[in-house]
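Worked Example 4.2. Consider the chain below.
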Amino acid sequence: MGAEGPDDADDAGAARVLVASLGGTWIAVDAEQVAGVVRPTPVTPVGGTPRWVRGVAAVRGSVCPVVDAAWLAAAPAADGAAADWWVLVTDGARSAALAGLRVWRVAAVAAPTGEEDGEADPAAAVAGLPAAGVARLAADSGRGAEALPAVVRRLDVPSLLDLLHAPTPAP
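Applying the procedure from the previous section yields the following structure tokens:
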């Protein structure tokens, strides 16, 4: 991911997830679907898009939609803090970012314990944000003083990208 994002996980060969905060809610994104992590740039609003699409922005020479993941997930506000990072997501087949996901904090790149479920833990539910089950994190996955939750909702990036390309109904 480069110098702009968190440190790599210790298990280089293991499946990894990027763990991020949406304020009061945590999500995991499969590492192979992350094109990078960058600081926000100016966003141009686009009419006729869903409320959770903030607009489009120039990122690494391309224009990509910016998704307000906290709004889509109905996450509680982070005490007035602004989103500090964009997680650039891709479908895994391309290295170019297909969307920027606004998050408050990128906490870690972690290797899930392997005890993963197709069904999400109700405590990890995230409203309208498409999910692909949960990731169970090892107790030592946290970086710094704040420990990560043991279970986080795994973002379904292909479904999120499908939502972005779905026709918006006329008002």
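The first strand starts at residue 17 and ends at 21. Strands lie at 17-21, 26-30, 34-38, 53-59, 62-67, 85-89, 99-103, 105-110, 131-136, 151-155. Compare this with Example 4.1 before moving on.
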